[in-house]
Amino acid sequence: MEAKLQELKQRLGEISDLNAAAAILQWDQSTYMPPGGARARGRQLALLGRLAHERATDPALGRLLDELRPYEESLPPDSDDASLIRVARRDFERDTRVPPEFIARIYTHMAEMYERWSAARPANDFASVRDGLERTVEYSRQLADFYPGYEHIADPLIDMADYGMNVSVIRPLFAGLRERLVPLVEAVTSRPPADDSCLHRGYPEAEQLAFGLEIAQRMGYDLQRGRQDKTLHPFATRFANGDVRITTRVREDDLSDAFFSTVHEAGHAMYEQGVADELDGTPLASGTSAGVHESQSRLWENLVARSRPFWEHFYPQLQARFPAQLGDVSLDTFYRAVNKVQRSLIRTDADELTYNLHVIIRFDLELELLEGRLAVKDLPEAWRERYRSDIGIAPPDDRDGVLQDVHWYAGLVGGAFQGYTLGNILSAQFFDAAVRAHPEIPQQIGKGEFATLHGWLRENIYRHGRKFTAAELTQRACGSQLSIEPYVAYLSAKYGELYGL
Ligand code: ZN
Asked: Residue 367 contacts by C-beta under 8 Å, 6 or more apart in sequence?
């Protein structure tokens, strides 16, 4: 058994290295590669992807996993080895279920759709992508059918990003959240809006980058095992435990953009840096689901870095860095500015309070498309209808409506949006649990100290990697199942105070 386990680790390690090599090429493509490199880079990435897929679906790997089953069953389920075999088998079954020709057809379709969408969005031309989107819905349904036994057709698609979650859990959860958020947004937006003009006064790039990175390090992002570079669409990426990078983008006319996205990506990166070293180079060495990953970025971005105690400590330092821009701006004005709430059309620019309404609209529409209750031709109007009822404004055109997000035009319909809101819900649950264990955390944040919070997250979330599902991790860390109550309580208290409700 020992020899078989070694062989398994060897095989999985090579797959992990191929994937890491591809991630480095992708990182380079998004940061430093000159435009002339695009064609060769596409070819190189396709080769690495093919090699990794061949190894991941090798029948010999399947036989090895079968032979290791008795060994797995002899171990405690939460041991590293049992978890490795279990998760590797789950990945193997997922990867071998779908015929390669079908995957190739979907990829070709997605590449073509992305090109069409890139032209359709600026031209406000939904008609030009309509038939393609109809095909995407069909492909998404067909892909789900390779995983028979599901309760809802979206479940296999959700499983790919948020393993173990499904429509019967998420739909009532989101419906409950929507019910609480719509009146809260209504109440907040009926009050005078916050003045955020202080954020748009012209902030030199180098100073913005230095401040963001200083805070990220203070929170626990380790630059001996990470670095920051500039990009167009910020992301975090992992090559190994010892090399987890973040990227950011700076707008000189918007102080909050680079800062909060740096903290957000550092939250993702701290999760990856915190995976136990023993798991490095295995399929366990990564965040466990899209939702849990997003909970770690949102926790630092919103619950910590948009809180009053945080700015009580750091605002004087920010003012000292930008005396001409912020010298005459009070802490209270600044705190209100970074927490400004408004009814808006664009998800990626939305504030903390309205953000989830944007996500829930997309999630619900996806389900209706997959269920066949909504036709693609009726999607733009359904979109406008939901924006009117949930957010209180409707887009004047499809460019800022149904065409705004790349997800449905470069990927499947289903599985891509729920993680954002699951992450927000979980961020409050995890933060609550950390504060229950260490009631001094809020005061520490007010002193610019994050070691206790970071330590709790390492111990309860980060180090486990993919050993536990999102539900298991939540149960272990919080002693409860997924619940919207801590999140709703957090939002109600914060925005109630800010807007005098
Ligand atoms: Zn994120």
From this structure: 152, 154, 167, 171, 414
